[in-house]
Amino acid sequence: MANNKNKPTFASRARAITKKFPRADFDKIEKEQLDKELAALAQEQEQYRQDNGMVDDNRQEYANGSYLVPKGLDTNFNIDTTQLAQNYQPQQSIDITSTNRGMLPTEGLSNYSTSIIPSIASGAITAGANLLLANRATKDVPEMELGRVSPEEISLARERAGVKRQSDLASRIARANAAKGSRTRGEYLSNAAAQSAAMNRGTSEALSQLYSQEARMNAQERARASQTNAQMQAREAAANMQAQQRAKANKDAYTSAAIQAIPQTMQNIAGIRQQDALINSLGQDYSMAQYQDPSLNWFQKLTQPKQTVRRYNQ
């Protein structure tokens, strides 16, 4: 039996054909060419089988692979593409280069490129929104207002009135006693004057103590109110300072995000360009281009997508 190990099989040729068209998954024209070459290979294999009298019943006898050898040699097959050849239907491509290779129009044709408008718009919206938020961050910052405490005014007027009433009552009683105990009018007047002086001194001392106590209590109340107000003012100042610091931090964060949107957008655009370059580099004898009817108005050109075409190298 002939040694066919170094002969290319139909399977290896099919793999080689597949490798020739790396963009067949997303390029309809390349997919069309891949299907055509695979179908031609299938027809060639079927013809080889028929020429060598090979039928389906004996297919299991050729399990080691089919090799391209002259007619008459003992040959094995490991693939059957008869059904593929019979069922093959060429794809209908609407690309303007599928039937007119190299005959592209001169107007309306541009290099293949993915639109960067969405990336630019996204970056502009992100930067603008962050700048707007940064501008508003330090405006209308709410301030804490705790109010103030008013000192209570303490009055001992009731106590003073009570002292005066008691003094008047004591004076009347003293005069009455002086009248009873005096033998003459002169003695009465002398005793009444002495008792009245003593009563007045006691009343004055009591009222003076009450006035001093009232002033002291009011001073203490004002001191407590001042201390409370100072504490509340300190709390207000601390809270408002923290609010201002948070607002400034937010402004800095929004400003930084707006600035970062620019290089991020540029990075996205660079990635799009790299992807476009990769797609163009996969072609064998052509590059990708885009076509749009030049007769369209500006709005139609803006809203209608461009047609991807293949521009063959001259």
Please give a structural write-up.
It is a single chain. With 314 residues, the chain is mainly α. It has two domains: 93 residues, no CATH class; 161 residues. 61% of the residues lie in helices and 5% in strands. The chain has seven helices and three strands. Strands 1-2-3 form a three-stranded antiparallel sheet, covered by helices on one side. About 15% of the residues have low confidence.
- Domains, number: 2
Low-confidence stretches: 57-102
Count of helical stretches: 7
Strand order of the largest sheet: 1-2-3
How many β-strand stretches? 3
Most strands sheet? 3 strands, antiparallel
- Average pLDDT reading: 76
Question: What share of the residues lie within helices?
Answer: 55-70%
In whole angstroms, the N-to-C terminal distance is: 49 Å
Secondary structural class: mainly alpha
Estimated share of beta-strand residues: under 5%
Overall body shape: rod-shaped
Cα-based radius of gyration, to the nearest Å: 55 Å
Order of helices and strands: HHHEHHHEHE
